[in-house]
Amino acid sequence: MALQVVIGFGPAGAATAALLAGRGEQVRVISRSPKEDEPGLEHVALDAADQDALVEATEGAAAIYSCASPPYPRWATDWPPLQASICAAAEANDALLVSLGNLYGYGPVDGPLTENLPLAATGTKGRVRALLSEQLHAMHDEGRFRMVEVRASDFFGPGVTDGGHLAARVVPNVLREQKVQVFGDPDAPHSWSYIPDVARTLVAAGREEKAWGRTWHVPTGPPRSARVMVAMLCEAAGVAPVAVQRLSPTLLRAGALVSSMLRELREVRYQFDRPYVLDSRAAQEFFDIAPTKEKDQFAATVAWWRDRLATVS
Questions:
Q1: What is the mean pLDDT of the chain?
Q2: Dihedral (Cα; 17, 22, 27, 62), 10-degree rounding
Q3: N or C: which end of the chain has fewer CB within 10 A?
Q4: CB-based contacts of 297: which residues, under 8 Å, 6+ apart?
């Protein structure tokens, strides 16, 4: 049984680690915060940007799943050393690197986002993600290590909290039957990648050698506007429909004066003010993975949030 290492224990990392463990793999999770070992999961606390420590912690790994992400406002400063450390670990241990990416590198695009589009972003965060992806593919082509990249749209589903646009600011309000405020145009079609489908794609990409050296989009359901998504959450929760409002641009500008997160969101506002549609047909056909049925996505998300709110209340 080969060692599988998951770096990062956010929603994607946790779901990937659980999926691997459920399939009988030996799984080691590396994250900053100390955690108790769980059945099938060994937890190691360290800063993944510490190259020497990470190389040692990943010794013997057959595959390294890169699911960590620096704090949003620090992408430009923290991502390059973090990825350099992860790449060094993969190279030193002759491990496959399965890297979780996103869609920022494409920049604004007219039409659906496909894997063969150029990484033409001009904003800071978009250029960071584009350069990181280009570096990974270059290292693979140079034979330094094997890699495969999986890109997802905005996360949705169990385990997604403060970092999700349809999470902590939305689902609790739905359950309390209160109005919801969303970023951008609430009626613009948008693709939402369901967290269990992100994990399924990462694991499938890590197991299929013919997939390596390429980029794949997470199998994602049809684009739905934030208004429609909220309505479907209400239906799953068995509550009356709630009002959906756009966050005031004036308030966002004022908030950006004191909040680094809101300042950073200005760069990606185009993703929410216009259609933002992910084309995942290539991965669906190659891996034979279909997106989870929407009814099941919403039921699981509502159930997870109900449990979470009951626990903290």
A1: 95
A2: -100
A3: C
A4: 156, 157, 194, 221
